[in-house]
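Journal club side-thread
Mid-discussion, someone asked how the predicted structure for our own chain would compare to the paper's figures. Pasting it here so we can look after the session.
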Amino acid sequence: MQPSFADPQDPRIPLFAVSPEGLSARIAALPEIARTWVEAQGFAAGAGECLAIPDASGKVAMAMVGTGPRESRRHRFAVGRGASRLPAGTYEIAGGTLDKADLEEAALGWLLESYVFDRYASRPARKARLVAPDGIDAGRIEAIAAGECLTRDLINTPANDMGPAELETAVRALAADHAARVEVTHADALLDANLPLIHTVGRAADAARGPRLIDLRWGAWGPKLTLVGKGVCFDTGGLNLKPGASMALMKKDMGGAATVLGLARMIMTLGIPLRLRVLIPAVENSVSGPAFRPGDILPSRKGLSVEINNTDAEGRLVLADALALGAEEEPDLMVSMATLTGAARVAVGPDIAPFYATEDRIAAAIAAAGAEVADPVWRMPYHEPYESLIEPGIADLDNAPGGGMAGSITAALFLRRFAGAGAYAHFDIYGWNQSDRPGRPKGGVGMGARALLAALPKMIRT
C-alpha cells in the first residue's frame, strides 16, 4: 500500500480538530442543526474521538475529531484517527486551530492510520481520505509514511514468508525502485568473506533459509551514512531454547532490519544527498546438528574472540560482523537498529526507542528530533565500569554476561567494540505495538527512524 493524500480537486468535507477546552466555542459556532447533533451525541473531544455531522439530507456535512487536552502529552496522532473512524469522503482540516507542527503530525498520523495489513485476511481499505493541509511538505510526509508502512509490512509478515531469502528479495525490490545496488554473500561464502559470526548463527537453518549478508548501496556523492539492521528472521533461542510464550513474537526479531529499510526508503525517496549503505545480516537462529553451543568460543571479523554463554544472545553476534565490515569504510555516521534485549523493554517500555551514542552532539540531535516529530527516544549510557562484565577472561568478549543486570547496556558496549572509532549510534528497539492506538495499529511498527531522518542535517552535513 502506498499511502497518499487525497486529490485536492475532490469535494471536501470540513474537519475540525477540537480540544475539550475549545469544544464549547466550536459548538457555539455551528449551525443550529449541527449544534443539536453534536450535543445529542455527547461528543467530548477526547483524543481520537470522532464524530460525523450530517446535513438536513443525512449526508456528511462536516466532522470533528478530538485532540484531547491541549497541554497533555499523553497522545500522539489523535487527529489521524479520523482515517479509520469517519465515513468515506475527502476531508480537509478546517478551523485554524492547529499550528504547522500540529498539522504535520495530524497529516502524518492520518496516513499512518490508513495502513492496513491484508496479506492473509481480507480487510477493507480506509475510505476516509485527507487533503494535504496548506503549508506542509506533503511529499516528505508521504515518503515518511511509505517508509513506515514498508517497515510494518516486513515485521507483520510471519517467518514462513519472511525468512532470510524473502528479506533479501524485499531489499532487492527496494533497490530496484531507487536505482540502488545490492550484493549478497550467502552461506559458506560468508566464511570466505571473513564474516564468521553471521555464518555461525545461521548455519543450523535449512539450506533454503541459510545465512547471508545483504549489502545495499545508494548515492554517488555526499557524506557516508551506514545503517546496520538486525535481520534475525526467526529466533528460537538456539540450543538455549526459548519457552513457547517467548517465541510467539519472534517473527519481529528482524525489526531492526525492517526499520533501517524503512528509513532507507525515506532517504532515497527524498533524494537526500548521501552515500547510503545498508548492511543486513539475515539469519534464522535454528536448532539442528550444526547449531552453535553454549561454551563455544567464536572468531569474529574484527579478530576479537567471543565466548558464547547463551545462544539466545545471537543478535549482537551477527551485528558485530556487520558493524566491523561497515566501520572499515569509515562512514561519517553509522547507526545500528535491533530488537536486541528484553532489558530495554523493562527500562523504558514498548513505546520509547532507547539509544546509545558515542558523541554528545549525535545524541542531542536525535533527542531533539524525536521530540519534534513525535517519535519518542531516550538516551542510554555507555557506562564504562560495566565493560568488565563483557570480558570473560577465557576469550576477549562474553556475548551474555550472567547476573541479569544492565542487559541493554552490556549489549551496547559489546557492539561498540566492533563499530570503529567514528560517530556511532545504536537503537535497542521493540518494533511492536501491543494494542491499537491512533496512527499505530496493533502489530509491527518502526521506532526511531523518523527521529533519525529529522536529525540527519545536524548529525552529518548533507
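Post-session note: The chain has a mean pLDDT of 96.
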